[in-house]
């Protein structure tokens, strides 16, 4: 009897040990679906490299599941329809994990398509990691069990930004310039709502929504801003739409404070530097001067690509997958998704949680300021001699906003 018990216990331990690392050595392929051609190609190329770089850095023994991560790019040309074509191609090629971020319209299309695919194909589920599309609807009325947002959404960023502007008495008149699609519209809406609560004395001097990726000359918009008398600008623009706007501001010699989501994204820092000293604030989950592991990753990325690593959501995405796969003891999306839902882990800003109710990452948010590098803030963004230096950290519980998500769980 003793012999039998010992052997049963030993066998149980062996099974448990095998189960704990059943996925060790597996390759987890992630399809990156974002612009790799067209006006936003420089941003998409940087972010594809970012995913691939972190995937390599966190593969094998560097993640608790022991899996290898591999990221492959699919060009969606910035279009929701092309995103669906890319998603179908990825699924046909066997990808079970997809990621996208540039454009909330594309994100909504992918999220809906993934949900429908999973309902029709049990056992072949796909998980969607949204690393940058920030329309709050994606984790509210359009929430999906299979969609996980790694970035802070617009409502969270605006909660942080309006809290910061509340304490800037010099800001009395704001001009809003945004891209005319879900993200840009939401930036304007949430800013006005937050401002009305916290600084009702601040005037909205003017507001424009312009076509996404189609404006080549922003000088007419700059002329309107100048004429309005605004003493600050708020914009959610990104990529070429922000770079060209900054160039138009430079050409007009208009130097008023700008509060922006994406001034650190490829191309824009160089344009900012060409205009000399400018008062620009970035509202984001990151800044340019991390130390420790993130600082080393940024330095290694620049050394390898002569480019900046700024999409830190890629780090959280890979870390979270590794943690969830170890918890699920599987790489199967149907098992990994429940493990990610509600998961807490150490992200690049410290304690981070993938909120179970809506799959919106709960994390701190930074206000950083464009300035020349100094002894404390040494990272030169795009080799300009300037950097985004941290000014204020808004804790996760302050930036957090409620959700209306009524998630249907499988």
Key structural traits:
Rossmann fold, 41% helix, 2 domains, alpha/beta
Please, could you describe this protein's structure?
- The chain is α/β, with parallel strands linked by helices and 410 residues long.
- It folds into two domains: 11-152 and 291-362, Rossmann fold, CATH 3.40.50; 155-284 and 365-399, Response regulator (Rossmann fold), CATH 3.40.50.
- It is 41% helix and 20% strand.
- It contains 13 helices and 15 strands.
- The strands form three sheets. The chain has a seven-stranded mixed beta sheet with strand order 7-6-8-9-10-14-15, with helices on both faces.
- Helix 11 crosses helix 12 (333-340).
- The longest helix is centred in the N-terminal third of the chain and has 19 residues, at 2-20.
- The radius of gyration is 22 Å and the shape is globular.
- The model is unreliable at 1-20 (pLDDT under 50).
- Count every beta strand, where a strand is a DSSP E run of 2 or more residues: 15
The geometry reads as: globular
- Low-confidence regions: 1-20
Q: Major β-sheet, in short?
A: 7 strands, mixed
**Largest sheet: spatial strand order:** 7-6-8-9-10-14-15
């Amino acid at each position: 009897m003793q012999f039998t018990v010992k052997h049963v216990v030993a066998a149980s331990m062996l099974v448990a040990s095998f189960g704990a690392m059943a996925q060790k050595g597996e390759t987890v392929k992630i399809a990156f679906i974002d612009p790799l051609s067209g006006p936003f190609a420089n941003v998409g190329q940087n972010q594809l490299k970012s995913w691939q770089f972190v995937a390599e850095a966190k593969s094998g023994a560097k993640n608790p599941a022991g899996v290898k991560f591999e990221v492959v790019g699919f060009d969606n040309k910035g279009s929701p329809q092309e995103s669906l074509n890319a998603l179908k191609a990825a699924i046909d090629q066997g990808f079970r994990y997809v990621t996208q971020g540039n454009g909330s319209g594309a994100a909504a299309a992918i999220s809906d398509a993934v949900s429908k695919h999973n309902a029709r194909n049990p056992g072949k589920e796909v998980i969607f990691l949204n690393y940058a599309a920030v329309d709050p609807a994606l984790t509210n009325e359009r929430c999906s069990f299979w969609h996980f947002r790694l970035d802070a959404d617009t409502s969270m960023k605006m909660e942080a930004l309006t809290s910061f502007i509340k304490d800037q008495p010099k800001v009395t008149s704001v001009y809003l310039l945004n891209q005319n699609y879900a993200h840009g519209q939401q930036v304007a809406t949430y800013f006005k709502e937050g401002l009305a609560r916290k600084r009702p004395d601040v005037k909205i001097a003017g507001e424009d929504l312009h076509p996404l990726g189609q404006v080549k000359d922003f000088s007419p918009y700059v002329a309107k801003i100048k004429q309005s008398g605004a003493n600050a600008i708020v914009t959610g623009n990104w990529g070429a739409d922000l770079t060209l706007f900054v160039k138009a501001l430079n050409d007009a010699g208009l130097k008023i404070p700008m509060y922006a989501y994406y001034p650190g994204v490829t191309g824009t820092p160089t344009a900012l530097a060409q205009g000399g000293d400018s008062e620009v604030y970035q509202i984001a989950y990151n800044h340019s001067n991390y130390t420790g592991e993130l600082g080393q990753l940024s330095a290694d990325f620049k050394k390898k690509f002569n480019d900046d690593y700024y999409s830190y959501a890629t780090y959280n995405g890979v870390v979270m997958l590794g943690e969830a796969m170890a918890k699920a003891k599987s790489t199967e999306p149907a098992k990994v998704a429940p493990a990610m839902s509600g998961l807490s882990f150490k992200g690049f800003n410290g304690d981070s949680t993938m909120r179970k109710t809506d799959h919106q990452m709960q994390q701190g948010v930074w206000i950083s300021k464009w300035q020349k590098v100094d002894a404390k803030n040494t990272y030169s963004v795009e080799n300009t001699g300037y950097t985004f230096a941290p000014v204020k950290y808004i804790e996760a519980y302050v930036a957090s906003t409620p959700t209306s998500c009524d998630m249907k769980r499988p």
